[in-house]
Design a protein that fits this description.
Number of helices: 14
CATH architecture of the largest domain: 3-Layer(aba) Sandwich
CATH topology of the largest domain: Aspartate Aminotransferase, domain 2
Bound molecules: pyridoxal-5'-phosphate
CATH class of the largest domain: Alpha Beta
Structural class: alpha/beta
Order of helices and strands: HHHHHEHHEHEHEHEEEHHEEHEEH
Strand order of the largest sheet: 1-7-6-5-4-2-3
Shape: globular
Radius of gyration: 24 Å
């Protein structure tokens, strides 16, 4: 019989990718890209070929072109930014997500994707011990999760003021004031901009030496402003890892009928581990939370969670509906109720698989291990004259400064240390400016990082600092 359908054969390209994958993960010892931009453009470049090429050849070409430009953030020596290491089980689930090619927009496009998402979202609420009645959107990351939480916040505080944003838009709405930390993560300011807020709607609250908002300043500023109010707090400061005082902020939110959103991109996971849970005390009194899967949970990129206590407010802010997309009786979750996307990747599979492979204890142990590693490193570095750990190491973050000497000032020393620590390719660090000085940031977040790495790292700091400060 004549064959009508020709099925593309996946085995060639997938076998090439699979044979390479393990080797890459096990043998990536230089964490830094080795190619220049020009070399990468050249490797990827050329005219689009008129004729296509066999899949396995294309994948082999992709590996050759990409590898010199890859960053080793899946490796234990990566400390530059808060990025997880894409757990192998999540990666495998992610491959299947692409093989299955599902569109996770609505239930009817993929009942399996919708149900995996529904279960994974329930597990996330459970392990983070947030109100079980909250609704959860699986997003591309904490930036988009913050956008969703703040969209729900904006619409709800205006609704309480008798104003329906969906009906009349923002043009004639009363001004909403948003209270943020002067050190709030930039993604929150971006989200506010997307939502129609400008600098004049934002009041910055002063911070202490750890970057925590000062509740007295918040109380003072809130008392000066009338009208609808939103507050943005932080669980896990990008540099210091510090947590705001959620109990005090939630009291103020209650007093002013304000919406409290918490940017908890990585800090929310402290709640999963008994020894760090108290850092999050009072966080469950917030109205919305944004967090990531691709940071501490180690899912592959991209995955984040937008969690909103009032599921009706969440849905009102995000809903996309049309007759051709309508639910049938008995349908399950429609992701279009929670995300600003229609067609979307079935991110729930990788989230479900990562949660299941780590399990409740695995997640708690990983968080505890990273925090213990951070404390151990702080203890060792504090013993090296000339190196100062500036922050209280409460989580997985260290902020380091270096004493000025005849080779340069403290800012120069931080840069020199960054260069020297990165020089052998085995570690990846980056500087930042924090509270008026250049500092070296250390994030301990890769799944594999353990005390054995920290012992070696502390010795390397000692040796490199002796060289740099000599
Ligand atoms: C505190 C905080 N908020 C928000 C974000 C943004 O997260 P994402 O990059 O997943 O959008 C980050 C990223 O590092 C962060 O640390």
């Amino acid at each position: 019989m004549k064959q009508i359908h020709s099925f593309p054969d996946l085995t060639g390209p997938l076998a090439t990718a699979s044979a390479y994958a393990n080797n890459y993960r096990c043998n990536k010892t230089n964490l830094h890209p080795t190619a220049t931009l020009a070399q990468l453009r050249n490797a990827f470049g050329g005219d689009l070929p008129a004729k296509g090429q066999a899949g396995e050849e294309v994948i082999a070409d992709l590996i050759r072109a990409a590898e010199p430009g890859l960053v080793g953030n899946t490796q234990p020596g990566f400390h530059a930014w808060v990025m997880g290491s894409s757990h192998p089980t999540g990666v495998a689930a992610d491959w299947l997500t692409s093989v299955w090619g599902q569109n996770a927009g609505i239930f009817q496009c993929s009942p399996a994707a919708a149900t995996a998402e529904e279960v994974a979202c329930g597990w996330v609420l459970d392990i983070l011990d947030l109100p079980r009645e909250a609704s959860v959107g699986i997003t591309t990351g904490a930036t988009m999760s913050g956008f969703i939480g703040l969209a729900a916040a904006r619409d709800e505080v205006l609704r309480r003021a008798g104003y329906d944003v969906a009906e009349t838009g923002l043009q004639y709405a009363p001004p909403v004031t948003v209270f943020v930390s002067e050190e709030t993560h930039v993604s929150n300011l971006a989200a506010l901009r997307y939502l129609g807020f400008g600098n004049q709607n934002v009041v910055e609250i002063g911070t202490d030496d750890q970057g925590r908002m000062m509740p007295e300043d918040m109380a003072h500023r809130m008392a000066q402003v009338g009208g609808p109010k939103i507050m943005i707090a932080t669980a896990g400061h990008i540099n210091s890892g510090a947590f705001d005082d959620f109990r005090a902020l939630a009291d103020l939110a209650d007093r002013h009928n304000a919406w409290l959103h918490v940017d908890a991109a990585f800090g929310l996971w402290a709640r999963a581990n008994v020894t760090t849970r108290s850092l999050t005390n009072g966080i469950d009194r917030a109205d919305s939370w944004s967090t990531d899967g691709h940071k501490w949970l180690q899912t592959p990129f991209d995955a984040g969670f937008a969690i909103v206590r009032d599921k009706d407010a969440h849905r009102r802010a995000m809903d996309i509906s049309a007759s051709y997309l309508s639910d049938a009786p008995g349908d399950g979750r429609n992701a279009t109720h929670y995300n600003p996307e229609l067609s979307r990747r079935a991110r729930g599979f990788a989230v479900w698989a990562t949660l299941k492979t780590l399990g409740r204890d695995g997640i708690a142990n990983m968080v505890r291990n990273h925090c213990d590693c951070a404390s151990l490193l702080a203890e060792k570095l504090n013993r090296i004259p000339g190196i100062t750990v500036l922050n209280d190491v409460v989580l997985n973050q260290l902020v380091l400064s270096f004493a000025p000497n005849r080779n340069g000032g403290a800012d120069d020393m931080a840069l020199k240390m960054e260069q020297a620590m990165n020089a052998d390719g085995r570690h990846f660090f980056r500087c930042a400016n924090w509270q008026g000085q250049r500092v070296l940031r250390v994030s301990i977040i890769s799944h594999e990082t353990g005390p054995q790495h920290i012992q070696l790292l502390a010795r390397k700091f000692q040796r490199i600092w002796a060289e740099v400060s000599h």
